[in-house]
Design brief:
This protein is α+β, with helices and mostly antiparallel strands. It is built from 17 helices and 15 strands. Strands 1, 4, 6, 7, 10 and 12 form a 6-stranded mixed beta sheet that branches. The protein has a 4-stranded antiparallel beta sheet with strand order 8-9-5-11, with no helix packed on it. A 3-stranded antiparallel beta sheet has the order 13-15-14. It is elongated.
Length: about 500
């Protein structure tokens, strides 16, 4: 196989492996996962003489509620969080936003006996805690139970505190399984980003190896075919000139079989320079230099009887041997052997141009892989509740592909989840404008964002109607009665009429 092709293969493998190891650099990844969250008491209004008292205080009169949260602190990275990973100036912990601890937090479970024994809560205020600097191996965790008191109408949030070496931020992941988060990628490609990247590289390398093996076998077969042709030409010439050639002339035939037509022609041109002519006689230094370029030595030509010495310093060819060589070269010329060699050189140049074009295409393909990776990372972040990260990934992807409807749709989902409802509406409108086929989920999200932005009720009704008509699973129909995004339009006659049209009970 040509050096140009192998250079192409090695370069492509290097690029793929570089990307793989760039993304696969081992590092910790500390996350806070809200594995469960439920209201203990939800007192919003007085019910007769019923009252709820906690710690001597009436919750109804103070308009308070209690939330029981199970928080998992887990290292989802590739390597352990060591003692040296912590910063004493910024201890690890978290703060409760929009609420306070009703009771001191407790560590209730751990994945290792070590964590169960040595993990402690170092400092507690009414809304902040920090943890001891324990070693957390990859994949291991400990859990806390939190009882949080908050004002009715607010939602307690967990804000991470502290710094871990080589980790940009600690993510808080909420188990919010909303209808808008369902996507084709999440259902079909549910593996982690690292696994997806490994698949791309692994199958790419397998393809390249199969590709290389195919062309290597093909080239070997082609080479054997050329050897057979050359042997056939030699045998044909021997049969034609058997009375004029001797056993010693086998040197010319062997040289042709080993080196090819171009080299045998160059040998004939060298010998023509030292033909028995006063103007053509060479010195030993000149002969040594010329023969070296053909992979021969002057001693070898002398021993074979092809060159004879005129005196101690000058040489010429042996006439009979030279005549056989010239005759053989002329025979090869008549058989078109030199024309085939020229065509082979032209083919090689064409192959080199193809390799250059392929390398250019590889560069484009690698760029496409990079952006597809961003899109995949955005989808994973959305499904894990890391909406800020999802916005970052999708925004970077959309710089290259600004009209991709699926990316715009998922960007809108992330924007809505962090309260940027106007941006979410703009993103999903652009997604709809660039879609050839609009799914019922996209129509449903569009209706939600229209309602959140208090757009004309007719627009909301139109979008929701499209979602209900195209949803063969009836999931939209089931979601509408409890959808908080429709609070502002739930009592509007047009909305009530649409619900009745599709048999939706709004009061259930």
């Amino acid at each position: 196989m040509s050096l140009g092709f192998w250079g192409f293969v090695i370069t492509l493998l290097s690029i793929l492996l570089s990307i793989y190891f760039y993304f696969k650099t081992p590092k910790p990844d500390l996350n806070y996962i809200i594995s469960s969250s439920s209201p203990v008491l939800d007192v919003r209004e007085k019910v007769g003489k019923l009252d709820i008292v906690y710690d001597g205080k009436s919750l109804s009169s103070e308009k308070k509620a209690l939330q029981l949260i199970t928080l998992r602190v887990i290292n989802q990275g590739d390597t352990a969080i060591s003692k040296q990973s912590y910063d004493n100036l910024a201890p690890i912990g978290f703060e409760v936003l929009y609420g306070t601890f009703a009771e001191p937090p407790k560590i209730v479970a751990a994945s290792q006996p070590y964590l169960e024994e040595y993990t402690t809560i170092q400092e507690v205020t009414n809304s902040k805690i920090t943890f001891s600097d324990v070693i957390i191996d990859a994949g291991h965790f400990f859990e806390l139970k939190l009882l949080i008191m908050y004002t009715n109408g607010e939602t307690p949030k967990i804000a991470p505190l502290g710094k871990i070496a080589s980790l940009d931020e600690i993510d808080v992941i909420y188990d919010a399984k909303q209808l808008e988060e369902e996507s084709f990628i999440s259902s079909a490609l549910f593996a982690t980003t690292g696994i997806q990247l490994f698949r791309i590289i692994f199958y790419g390398i397998i393809f390249l190896l199969m590709f290389a093996a195919y062309f290597s076998i093909e080239e070997r077969l082609s080479e054997l075919k050329h050897v057979r042709k050359k042997k056939k030409l030699v045998q044909s010439y021997k049969n034609f000139k058997k009375e004029q050639i001797s056993r010693r002339d086998e040197f010319f035939f062997d040289y042709y079989l080993r080196h090819g037509p171009t080299e045998i022609k160059l040998l004939s041109e060298l010998l023509s320079k030292v033909n028995d002519d006063d103007k053509s006689i060479m010195t030993s230094e000149e002969l040594q230099f010329e023969s070296f370029n053909l992979g021969l030595t002057s001693e070898e030509l002398l021993n074979e009887g092809i060159i004879v010495s005129k005196d101690s310093e000058r040489y010429c060819t042996e006439p009979a041997r030279y005549a056989v060589l010239i005759s053989f070269v002329e025979y090869l010329k008549r058989q078109g052997e030199f024309d085939r060699k020229l065509a082979s050189l032209e083919e090689t140049n064409a192959e080199m141009q193809i390799v250059e074009d392929q390398m250019s295409n590889v560069s484009k393909d690698m760029s496409a892989i990079k952006f597809e990776q961003l899109k995949l990372q955005g989808a994973v972040a959305l499904n894990e509740g890391n909406y800020e990260k999802g916005i970052t990934y999708f925004s970077e992807y959309l710089k290259k592909y600004p009209d991709d409807p699926s990316a715009l749709w998922k960007l809108a989902c992330c924007q809505k989840r962090i309260g940027k409802t106007l941006l979410a509406l703009e993103s999903i409108e652009k997604a709809i404008n660039n879609s050839t086929e609009i799914s019922y989920l996209m129509h449903y999200n569009y209706a939600c964002y229209l309602a959140l932005n208090e757009r004309d009720i007719n627009e909301v009704i139109e979008a929701l109607s499209q979602a209900l008509q195209n949803d063969e699973t009836n999931r939209v129909k089931e979601q509408v009665p409890t959808e908080s995004d429709f609070e502002s339009v739930r009592s509007i006659p047009e909305f009530i009429a649409l619900a009745a049209q599709f048999g939706i009970e709004l009061d259930k």
